């Protein structure tokens, strides 16, 4: 009985390790989804309400999430007259390290247009970036599914092998 | 005094650091009386204090192009898109109610302004009690026009009359340029009493919307200039609403020179004119009742 329980725990632990290996991909997906949401929200605010950037960033930061601190910082900095591109630089750094250069580049294109041109141009840039980020999110989600299955199967097999070995 | 210093502080706070330091070389008394800060590329930074021009800094300070760009970024909170329509018309009003007049090169067929060359920061300064000395409070309010040249204090007086009137009447303010109430996030920066304020839209659109939506007894508008503004006021007057407005002009004859004003006068819309002058460095108000035509 104790042996069977021990073997079960070994298999479960191995499955857990497999899940943990995919954790950073999961986080990447969550960050991309939030970024997409922010860009979509920004496009709407710019297009329909001409919202000033400090208010726009603050409203988004207020909703919480992984972008919250970066957007709060951007709200403060733009209120002092810093460009959106400069104010969002720390957030772009985070995106670059977690999601890769391409995503950060897409985001920077939106940041560059915000507050610099008319609302329509800025909103269009946000939507283009949103699309690019969305593509990347879909890629990561597919990767997550594939990786999840692979790591899950390998971990369970290794776990089962370990359990048999100690039986 | 504290409020006056705050007005100067928020206006000078728009300046980049080097210019800001120069602005703070004014004495406290000068800061309290400062009406404008003039920033021109490669020309000495100056302030208008009680009608006099004063060069700022211990030695003349020449603003650079990049400093004007920084000033504009601060004034717009890095959000040019929000102020685009105002900038097209050559000004923008900050969230503290200061109006910046801007000059540069008009480009894109009048759509945009680039190559900023000069900025005039008009320090918005509410003066509570400015309307107390007027002899208009003992009789029921009648439609009133405030007439004065630019910079004489028309908006300040309008704001004060609105504030006092709103204690007993329903007053709606069409604040096209955000100068009367300086509303930001729904709350007015300046004391306007119990007025209902609609900001940002054109005077014509805003005044008529206020009449429809807020059933005011008095509608207040700042700086009627073109014929469309005058037509809007005529429409409001036709709805049985009293009007309080300001207009550029030196004397009563100016009211008959411009076609728009002439139409208002011929329709007997206004029953009283308040003119603002200066006497010994202080503002002086003259109230003139307008005769009603038979």
Brief sketch in words of this structure:
Chain A has 167 residues and is an all-alpha fold. Chain A has helices at residues 2-21, 23-49, 53-62, 68-79, 84-87, 89-99, 101-113, 119-166.
Describe this structure in words.
The complex is a heterodimer of chains A (167) and B (294). Chain A has 167 residues and is mainly alpha-helical. Chain A has one domain. Chain A is built from 8 helices and no strands. In chain A, helix 3 packs antiparallel against helix 4 and helix 6 packs antiparallel against helix 7. The N and C termini of chain A lie close together (11 Å). Chain B has 294 residues and is α/β, with parallel strands linked by helices. Chain B has 2 domains: 121 residues, Beta-Lactamase (2-Layer Sandwich), CATH 3.30.450; 146 residues, Rossmann fold (3-Layer(aba) Sandwich), CATH 3.40.50. Chain B is 31% helix and 29% strand. Chain B is built from 10 helices and 15 strands. A 7-stranded mixed β-sheet of chain B has the order 11-8-12-13-7-14-15, with helices on both faces. In chain B, a hairpin with a 2-residue loop joins strand 9 and strand 10. In chain B, helix 7 packs parallel to helix 8 and helix 8 packs parallel to helix 10. The longest helix of chain B is centred in the middle third of the chain and has 12 residues. Chain B is globular, with a radius of gyration of 19 Å. Chains A and B meet through helix 3 of A and helix 4 and helix 5 of B.
């Amino acid at each position: 009985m104790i042996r069977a329980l021990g073997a079960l725990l070994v298999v479960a632990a191995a499955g857990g390790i497999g899940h943990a290996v995919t954790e950073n991909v999961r986080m990447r997906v969550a960050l991309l989804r939030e970024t997409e949401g922010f860009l979509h929200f920004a496009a709407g605010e710019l297009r329909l309400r001409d919202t000033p950037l400090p208010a726009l960033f603050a409203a988004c930061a207020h909703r919480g999430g992984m972008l919250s601190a970066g957007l709060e910082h951007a709200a403060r900095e733009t209120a002092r007259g810093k460009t959106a591109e400069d104010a969002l630089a720390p957030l772009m750094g985070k995106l670059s390290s977690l999601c890769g250069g391409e995503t950060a580049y897409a985001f920077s294109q939106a940041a560059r247009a915000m507050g610099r041109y008319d609302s329509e141009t800025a909103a269009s840039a946000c939507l283009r970036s949103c699309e690019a980020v969305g593509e990347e999110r879909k890629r990561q989600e597919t990767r997550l599914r594939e990786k999840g299955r692979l790591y899950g199967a390998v971990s369970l097999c290794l776990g089962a092998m370990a359990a048999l070995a100690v039986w | 005094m504290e409020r006056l210093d705050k007005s100067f502080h928020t206006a000078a706070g728009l300046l980049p650091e080097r210019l800001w330091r120069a602005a703070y070389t004014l004495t406290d008394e000068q800061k309290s009386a400062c009406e404008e800060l003039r920033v021109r590329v490669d020309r000495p930074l100056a302030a208008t204090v009680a009608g006099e021009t004063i060069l700022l800094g211990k030695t003349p300070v020449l603003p650079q192009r990049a400093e004007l760009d920084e000033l504009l970024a601060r004034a717009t909170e890095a959000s040019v898109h929000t102020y685009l329509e105002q900038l097209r018309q050559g000004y923008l009003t900050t969230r503290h109610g200061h109006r910046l007049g801007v000059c540069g090169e008009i480009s894109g067929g009048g759509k945009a302004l680039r190559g900023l060359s000069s900025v005039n920061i008009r320090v918005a300064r509410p003066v509570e009690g400015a309307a107390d000395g007027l002899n208009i409070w003992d009789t029921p309010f009648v439609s009133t026009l405030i007439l004065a040249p630019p910079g004489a204090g028309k908006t300040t007086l309008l704001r004060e009359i609105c504030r006092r009137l709103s204690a007993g009447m329903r007053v709606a303010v069409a604040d096209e340029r955000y100068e009367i109430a300086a509303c930001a996030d729904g709350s007015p920066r300046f004391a306007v009493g119990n007025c209902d304020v609609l900001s940002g839209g054109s005077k014509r659109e805003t005044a008529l919307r206020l009449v429809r939506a807020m059933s005011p007894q008095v509608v207040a508008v700042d700086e009627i200039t073109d014929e469309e503004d005058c037509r809007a006021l005529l429409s409001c007057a036709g709805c049985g609403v009293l009007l309080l407005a300001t207009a550029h002009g030196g004397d009563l004859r100016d009211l008959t020179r411009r076609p728009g004003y002439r139409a208002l006068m011929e329709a007997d819309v206004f029953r009283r004119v308040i003119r603002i002058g200066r006497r010994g460095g202080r503002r002086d108000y003259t109230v003139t009742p307008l005769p009603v035509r038979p």
